[in-house]
Amino acid sequence: MTLLIFLRRFVYIGYYFKKLDWQKFHYFTNHYAIGNQKSKLSIWYGMLADSIKFNISLLEYFMFDFAHKTKEEKASWSGTGYMYEYQLKMNPPEYRSVLSDKTQFLVQYRDFVKHEFITLSALEGNPGKGEQLLNNPSGKLVLKNSKGQCGRGIEVVDSKAFTPVSLVERLKATGNDFAEAYVVQHPDLMSLSPAGLNTVRIITQLDRTNKVHLLGARLRITVNSPIDNLAAGNIAAPIDIDAGIVTGPGVYSDITKTDEYHHPVTGVSIPGFQVPFWSETIELCKAAALVDTRNRSIGWDVAITETGPELIEGNHDWCKLLWQLPVKRGLKDRLEAFLIEFQHSTINHP
Q1: Cα separation of 182 and 160, whole Å?
Q2: Fold of 115-181
Q3: What's the DSSP call for residue 284?
Q4: 350: pLDDT confidence band, cut at 50, 70 and 90?
Q5: Which residues in the chain are classed under CATH 3.30.1490?
Q6: Helix and strand tally (H, E) in the chain?
């Protein structure tokens, strides 16, 4: 490790502490100390050393279970620092707005989006459009912030409880700036978990010839939650890319919880679950990946309805936890070839 890399990772440590969820940190530390019969001091030392050496965040030390891994195994995991640097190269900041701004995304990728939406400014300027949205077939609305992350601030509401004027007031009161029609999922997914929309995350990567490669597919499953993010306490399971069949249990990002082989509420088996319209879902993501090739590595969130798949959003900073935890191994090797190719092409084609 060069001095420059060491200093950069030391700066990352400061960032991790600044953003740290201290309640979760102490919770994980106590659980780890008891389960591994180690002192907190030894855990903290190992955590800081591994954070610098393997470019992971503090909480990822627990989530990746580094206390029980060899040096070689640790090196195979993509942590926050590594992914930040990778995605910075693959999805340059000057081109990311189409993905980081949800309303821009819905416009840019309209051909792959079936549900209706309206921004706060458009709603204020044209209440008639608000009436159309309020009368959508699902009877529900999803209120979001166009710059929101990890499902924070999202509300699912009964559209009958609002008028265009009161919808404007609710958006402003909750810090959200657009509303979209609630997507009604396929009956099979509804049977698995009716609490919220269960989406498929498919990660695409473009090589230098713009061929689309699939880095992985995961089923995000709600557990008594209207949103399906791992950060909200839900589970995710691996999907076989070729068959669209779930190949393992649902896993939490909470290290104190055990894997779920059956949905904890509905009892439906998770391994063996067949995602409907799988070939159509894959083709949709491959086509979407070529819409704007300036962003080369994207995590697509796809809803599966009774009539087929549709995009919910695309993520330039797709989650390394959702990618790796369900398969219980580090997947950095899936990215290294693309990184080397990118670096060479940058040198050869300035």
Answers
A1: 13
A2: Dna Ligase; domain 1 (3.30.1490)
A3: H
A4: very low
A5: 115-181
A6: 15, 9
